[in-house]
Amino acid sequence: MHRRSFIAAIAATLGLTSKARAASGTFEVTRTDAEWRAMLSDLEYRVMRQEGTERAFTSPLDKEKRAGTFHCRGCDQALYSSKTKFDSGTGWPSFYQPLPNAVATKPDRSLFMLRTEVHCDRCGSHLGHVFNDGPPPTGKRHCINGVSLVFRPA
Q: Could you list the active site residues?
């Protein structure tokens, strides 16, 4: 397990997640806080709207191997193809590339380090983080919380 993944796993286990809200800005899909709370479970809300992290190795999507597409739980936008999914060994679904025009990023300075947060560019929901230790052809690892995703088989 990589050092960053280990620190994130410890923080998630201890509940030491960022208090920041999901990405700010103007998004195509917007909801009130009450609407988000009504449509998401407590864990989904904490991850997607408060930039939390689910515990490593708890999402069944980490082991999902079928052909298909991973969509945003918040707005149903297609985010990642199963063709770009790989087993990073970190305990979270990992992809080396998002679908075109699906995600956006911003700096995340929580947990005493600088990381790159990734969110849905349609609704602003927090998905996870992007690291520079992924496989070719991009060298990127989009480490994504499974609770932020919905898988649709091909």
A: 143
